[in-house]
Every structure is written in structure tokens, then in C-alpha cells.
Specification:
Blueprint: E1 3-7, H1 15-26, E2 30-32, H2 45-55, H3 57-68, E3 76-80, H4 82-93, E4 99-103, E5 122-127, H5 131-135, H6 138-148, E6 152-157, H7 174-192
Parallel strand pairs: 1-2, 1-3, 3-4, 4-5, 5-6
């Protein structure tokens, strides 16, 4: 079974993030879900990003890296939206990563000063009309990453919601999340073989 470090989105460590982690735990995986916001929760992405800007994006990244240092290097990094930046950086630059799961976001690999490790498996999930994922360039970064990695998949779901797999939010899409979870569990099973 896999060991996963799961990093939350800009609304903080919501009940929906914990529920997602519990789904993975229910399949036998070990999932660590740190709170990079020290208990702060937000109701809008804008409010969450205001908080991130107040304490500094670099500080959020440092918190994620500090947390990761507490776990074995042979781990799978996963992130939702804001958490993708930290998860992608760790997967791409921390030796020993087993894989990456990037939800609702993807940044150019060049952002971290090195190419994506070709042998490192990755799955990217987003909605095909999500303005954050599509209009801000994440989908292009995801498509580029998929062409450079040996084991990479980009899954697009119909819809325009950003945080669609968080069941504690109005943006939750049950059918898309069910399919996303099936694909994630297949990915994790494949890594165990």
C-alpha cells in the first residue's frame, strides 16, 4: 500500500479534504494531511489567497517542505490547487518520490529549475471549463508535463468547478469525484505492482 502526503487547497484543511484522505485510507493507504494554514479556514479562494499573500507564498512552500522532511523520501506527493505547487515541487526535486497526484492545478516544470523526472509517474485531474485550470495556463503546463513523462495521465472532467472533489463545498461534483477516485486508486495500485 502507498504512503501519501496530501496538501490542501487555498480554503485550508476542510472536512472535504479529510474525507478524501479517508477514502484513500479506506483502500488501505497511509495518508498524511498536514494543515499548512495553522487552523485557518476560508469560504472563498480569494480570501484564502489573501491569507497566503499575507504570510507569503514562500512560507507556505517552506511549511510543506518542512512537513515532508518528517516522512520517508519514498512517498507519493498529492496536492489540491494551491497544494499542487508544493506537491509538484517536492515530487520533482526531492529524490525518492514514488509518484504525484495533482488536482485542479499544474505549473510548468521549469518553475523548479529542472525538468520533470521522466520515470516519475503522475496523474493530473481538472475540469475542462474550470477558469482557474484552463484560463490561467495550468492545462497547458499539464499537457506539456504529460509529453515529457514516461507514465503521465491528464484527466479532464466536464464542468467549470475548481474544487470539485471537496464534498464539504458547494462546488462538489459527486460523479466526477467518483471517477477521479477510481482513477487515483488504480494509479496507486499500479505503483504497488
Amino acid at each position: 500500500m502507498a504512503e501519501i502526503l496530501l496538501l490542501h487547497h487555498a480554503l485550508g484543511l476542510t472536512k472535504g479534504i479529510n474525507a478524501f484522505a479517508d477514502e484513500l485510507r479506506g483502500a488501505g493507504h497511509t495518508v498524511h494531511v498536514p494543515d499548512l494554514f495553522d487552523g485557518h479556514l476560508f469560504t472563498t479562494i480569494e480570501d484564502g489567497m489573501t491569507y497566503v499573500n499575507e504570510i507569503g507564498f514562500e512560507e507556505i512552500t517552506k511549511r510543506g517542505i518542512r512537513v515532508a522532511s518528517e516522512f520517508p523520501r519514498e512517498i507519493i506527493y498529492a496536492g489540491f490547487s494551491l497544494g499542487v505547487v508544493v506537491a509538484q515541487k517536492l515530487a520533482q526535486t526531492r529524490e525518492g518520490a514514488r509518484g504525484a497526484l495533482l488536482f485542479y492545478s499544474c505549473v510548468p516544470a521549469s518553475m523548479f529549475g529542472s525538468p520533470w523526472p521522466a520515470e516519475l509517474p503522475v496523474q493530473i485531474h481538472g475540469m475542462d471549463a474550470d477558469p482557474y485550470f484552463v484560463d490561467e495556463g495550468d492545462i497547458e503546463a499539464a499537457r506539456e508535463l504529460v509529453t515529457t513523462a514516461d507514465h503521465a495521465e491528464l484527466f479532464l472532467y466536464r464542468g467549470d468547478q475548481h474544487l470539485f472533489a471537496d464534498r464539504s463545498l458547494p462546488s462538489y461534483d459527486a460523479s466526477a469525484t467518483t471517477l477521479l477516485l477510481q482513477r487515483v486508486l488504480q494509479f496507486l495500485q499500479h505503483l504497488d505492482n
